[in-house]
Structure formats: C-alpha cells, structure tokens
Amino acid sequence: MSLGQVNLCLVLHNHQPIGNFENVFAQAYEDSYLPFLEVFESYSQLKFSLHTSGCLMQWLDEHHPEYLDRLAVLAAHGRIEIIGGAFYEPILTMIPARDRVGQITSFTRWLERRLATKVQGMWMPERIWESCLTSDLAAAGIEYTVLDDFHFRCAGLTDDQLHGYYVTEDQGQILRVFPGSEKLRYLIPFCDPLETIAYCHEMGQRFPGCVITFGDDGEKFGTWPETKKHVYEDGWLRKFFESLTQNSDWLKTLTMAEAVEQCPPAGKIYLPDASYREMTEWALPVERQLVQQDLIHDLEHDPRWPELKNFIRGGYWRNFKVKYPESNEMYARMMVVSNKLEDAARQGCPADVLRQARQWLYQGQCNCSYWHGAFGGVYLPHLRNAVYQNLIAAENVLLSWSKPHRPWIEVAATDYNFDGEQEIQLANDQLAVWISPQHGGEIYELDVRKNGHNLLATMPRRREAYHRKITESQRQHDSNHGAASIHDRVVLKRDDLASFLQVDNRTRKSLVDRFWAIDETLDRVRRGTAIDWGDFSEGQYKATIRRNPERIQIMLARSGLVDGHAVKVTKGVTLNAGCNLLEIAYLLAGLPPHSRWQLGVEFNFAGLPDGQDDRYFANNQGERLGQLGAVLDLPQASELQLYDEWLGLHLKLSLKDATGIWAFPIQAVSQSESGFELVHQSVVVQPHWVLQADADGEWSTTMQLAIGCRKDANPASGREETLAAF
C-alpha cells in the first residue's frame, strides 16, 4: 500500500416511484441514467456500485432493455457492482418484517436472473435506519449497506473515525455498514472535481488506506434543476472521471463488494434510529422545524459549529404518520392488506393468487407518498392514488378467491388506523367505506373497487416550514429589496403563490357536519374564515350497526352544542350488497323554533383534478357547469354530478330536498425539487340547508351518492416474468 492511498466507493441510487408519470421516467432516463452510463463506459479504470429501484428496473426492462444489457456487460467485467434492496423502495421500518425480507429477496432474484450477477449489498431506502433491521437484512441474504455518516455521528463517532466501514449486530446476525460522506454529497456534483480530489488527498495523508464512501441519488447527475447543463454540457462529469483517472496511482475506485473483501472493518458499532440529516428536520412538527432552522442559522458561523452540529438532530421518520394523518391512512390500509395476505397464505390460498396480490401489495408500499421534504411526496395526488390503486388491487385479488360468489356485503369494527379507537369498515363487492365515529363521524376512505380508486385520498392545506420562504420572498419583491440570498433561494412556479397560503382547520374528508350562520357565504367558507357554530365536525359520535344479509346501515349519533343550544344529530349510512350507491339520512333534534343556522354537509372527492375538459361538473339535465376546478354557488339544486372521464368515474349526489350547493377546489402550496407549486388536492361539494324545525324541534333530509365506474384500472403490468420473483 502506497503512502496516502485512498479507496473511494461511489454508490449511486436511481429511483422513480410507483405512480410517477411516464414522461418523468423517460426524461430521467434521457437526462441522467443514459448519459451517465455513456460517459462512464469510456473510463475503463473506474468502478462504482449501482442501485436501481425495482420500479425503475421494470420500466427500463420494458422500454430500454438495451440499457440493462449494457449494465450486465459492465457487471460481468467487474466495473459496476449491482446492489439490491427492497423491490419497490419502501421505508423498511414502515412495513412488517415478513414484507421486508420478501421485498429484498424477490428483488435479488429478479436482478440475478436479469443481469446475471451476484447481489450481496443493498441500498437502504431514504437511509431510514433502526437496529432491528440488521437481522432482517441478514435473513434476506444481505451482507452490507450504506447509510449516512450522520448516523455514525449520532452514535458518538467523530470525523476522524468515518473513513471505513463498520460491523453491526442484532440477534446474533451481523451486517457491514458504510458511512456515506455528507461532505461528498455536497461536493458532488456541485463543486469543482478538484475539490473532491483535494478532500480525498487530505484523508489519504491522514489515514492511509482509508475507505471513503459517496452514496446519493443518480438524479443529481442531470435530472435535478440545472444539473443537466452543468454535468454534461459543461463537462463536469468528464472532468470528474478524468481527475479520478489521473490520480489513480493513489486514489482507487472500489465497489462496495471489493472494499469488504480487501479492507478490514474499522470496528463495531450500534447505530441509533436515524436517517439523513435533512430527513430528520423534515420529520419535525412545523414549529419545531422553524426553531431548528433558526438555531442553525444563528450558530453555523460560530467557531464551535463543526463540533456543535454533531449534537443537533431533528425528528424521527415514523412521526411523518403523525405530522400527516393521510400518511397514516395509507400505512393503515397497507397493513390491512398485508395481514389479509398473510391470513390467506395460512388458509391455503393458491400460489398464483398470492403472487399477484403480493406484487401489488409491495408496489403499494413504495415510500415516496408516505412523507414530504424537498420532494412533493404526500402532497402529490398521483403518488397517493397509486398507493391506493395497488393496495385495492391486491385486496381484490384476495377477495376473488375468498368471496367468489357475488354480490356480498359485510361490516367490521376495529382499530384500523392504530389510534386506540374503533373505526368501521362497511364493504361490499363494489365499494369499501371507512368511517371514523370518533372524528366527527366522517367517512375517511371510500374505495371504488372496479378501478382501484380511493375518492378520499385527500390532502388539506397545511402550514409548512418552507412557506416562510415564500412570504419572505414576496415581501422582498414588493419592497424592491432584490432577490433572496442563495442561502434562502426560492423558485416560485407562479407569482401569486403567497395568496394561496391558507390553512384548513381539519382534514378534508366526507360527511363532515358544519353549522353556519344563515347568511354565511361561499367566499368565507372557501377562505376558511366562516365560523362553524357547532362542535360536530370534530366531535365524537356513537355508532350502532343495523344489518341483514343484503343491507347494512351504520347509525351515528351525537348530542352537542350549536351556538350554546343543545342539539342532537343522527346520521345514517346505508349500503346494499352488489350496489354502488350510498344512502345517507340526517335527523336533527332539539332545534329551537326560530334557529338561524344552516347545516352544511361537506364532501371531498380526490383524484378528480382541475384544468382538464374531461373532468367537469354537470347538473341533473347533463348540462356542463365547468371544469372541476370551477367555483359553484348553486342556489336551488337537487343534484350535482362530477365526471372524470380519464378515470372513468361518474359521481352523482342527489338530494331529496332541493337546496344550495357550494363547490370549490382545494389547492395546496407545496415544495418540490424544482420549486414551489400549487397542487390540486380535492373538490369540495357542500350542500347546505336552512334549518326549519317542525313542531317537535326536528328536521330531516336524505341524499344519495351514486358512484359509477366505466372502466377497469390496470394498476400493475403483472407480467409473468415479473411475478416469478414473488
């Protein structure tokens, strides 16, 4: 070993999530994956380890098999090490251990069959780590992985100890763990390649024979904003590879497999639950996130900062399920399906049924829609829709085996969402209705089985820490103070985003009971400034179930207050076997003789985007009333229809008593890698009645929600070649 020798492990992670648009896959291939490979191939001395998620691998195999053939050749020559992972890139701590092992082993089989290479290591999705994963990874045949050096700093290691790999253990099973360099993450590819060379040279002088690891997204090389020009057109990548080649007498690129084979471990370590530094910040509640940002801003110029920052960490990934209840809803739905699949396996379900259900379950576990940070994540409707589409498809496959005779109907009550309270699932062969008596008696999930769509995969308008950047940017613009500093750089996809920074006071679900003043207006309701005089929208309802073999009704009742008056609300939701129609009834009791209130029953419908002519409102004569992004104030209406011809959905809300109907879009301001944007989340439809009590102080009405579906969904390609891995 020559004095100052350095072993550099370059680990790239390429991924596109389930449900992402076809053009995004294609653009990332053209801008990142293909040009990176084309540049790399001509530098014969260099090596790196490559992870490509299963979602992306299957797309590449279908659309660009020649790209995978080139990877296979490079792998055969030892220039690229193919590392595996969980097939559809779930956060491993979010899914049951059986699914962790299943996802990893099935992807290993797929890779080894398609690329004719041995898989020994894996990429840890989002570098989310908990110690219990060690034994699961070992059980799946994995020998090593890469995390961030932040994990190791949280365990008490210093910079001087982060130049190798370590061994960790759980239940007697061991795993080798590489600390990915945060410094290199910020140098590559944003700084001159010579800065990376200088850093490696410094490390080699101090720690001869050391192993330095870079592990990060391949999309940094062409797909991220402005990187295509920088990396390829301006020649950054060629300069980087040439610099590595010119210094190959002391700077050697190794695959992770070679590093494990040639270099001894630096020691043993037990790592705390952690993820990369930025993720821990995003997982914090908004107020604490802002406090942390301010503290860092105040302290980062302190001479003690290099030492202090090792003791500053944020939150815990699992709390995304608290920060965003919609994430928890997807997680809970996923757990229902996973448990049903496990039960079906124990009951002797045929292997082909289990394989198909398992593939769709695994696709529904893809992590990107379960959290939110610099990328759209949970705010992106198409990613949420894809999760539900695959989970519903998996459940449908299992139901086709367990309930072959249709029609049918059933009801169950248990703690589905893990909040310590019981929820109710009312389901038949057409629909699945999930009701939360404890949370306003709302319907929080409404699945259309035929095309796998959850009409309540909604997202409200919430305050986010990055909204501060938008308002500050607007103030600077208005005051002619110039652009924000590079530290606080803001890219707005439209100039008026600050005017959309509205916060909803609850989740956006259906059958939400509102009591408005008699003169309340649509504008105030839209802007969230209207006063709800009742305590019913968030109140606890008592549920009772009435059933017969063909018809089940859920009765929900609550005694509460409206402007200080005691009022009782009883509402019923009825579903028949083989029916795609919900019958909804309301009875109010205890109304004062001359009440000055309106009852508004709020519905939200997700997956029905605005801005397209094939997504529109219609009246009971079939006349179009505008796209689904339109704002409607219908004074006397007995019906409102919503069409999404692309999804094949037709909703018809029919009212027994003609009344006013308000309709308007919910649009949230969210952050993505390319800037801040306005994203359509749902359509609010709210019939509202002026309450006129009878002699007994009662008022009642009924309505029906009919859900038509004109085409079947295709949530997964389902090729036999793919299914063989499961």
In short:
The chain is α+β, with helices and mostly antiparallel strands and 726 residues long. 31% of the residues lie in helices and 29% in strands.
How is this structure best described in words?
The protein folds into four domains: 6-273, 7-stranded beta/alpha barrel, CATH 3.20.110.20; 317-452, no CATH class; 462-501; 510-709, Beta-galactosidase, Chain A, domain 5 (Distorted Sandwich). Residues 478-488 and 712-721 have low confidence and may be disordered. The chain is built from 21 helices and 27 strands. 31% of the residues lie in helices and 29% in strands. The strands form four sheets. Strands 16, 17, 18, 19, 20, 21, 22, 23, 24, 25, 26 and 27 form a twelve-stranded antiparallel sheet that branches. The protein has 726 residues and is α+β, with helices and mostly antiparallel strands.
SSE order and pairing:
Blueprint: E1 6-14, H1 22-41, E2 48-52, H2 54-63, H3 65-76, E3 80-82, H4 97-115, E4 121-123, H5 133-139, E5 144-148, H6 149-154, E6 166-170, E7 173-180, H7 182-187, H8 193-206, E8 210-217, H9 227-233, H10 236-246, E9 251-254, H11 256-262, E10 267-268, H12 277-282, H13 286-299, H14 305-308, H15 320-323, H16 325-346, H17 351-364, H18 381-402, E11 409-414, E12 423-428, E13 431-436, E14 442-448, E15 453-454, H19 467-478, E16 512-517, H20 522-527, E17 542-548, E18 551-562, E19 565-576, E20 581-589, E21 597-606, E22 615-618, E23 624-627, E24 632-644, E25 649-672, E26 675-690, E27 699-709, H21 720-723
Parallel strand pairs: 1-2, 1-8, 1-9, 2-3, 4-5, 5-7, 6-10
Antiparallel strand pairs: 6-7, 11-12, 12-13, 13-14, 14-15, 16-21, 17-18, 18-19, 19-20, 20-27, 21-26, 22-23, 22-24, 24-25, 25-26, 25-27
Helix pairs in contact: 2-3, 4-5, 16-17, 16-18, 17-18
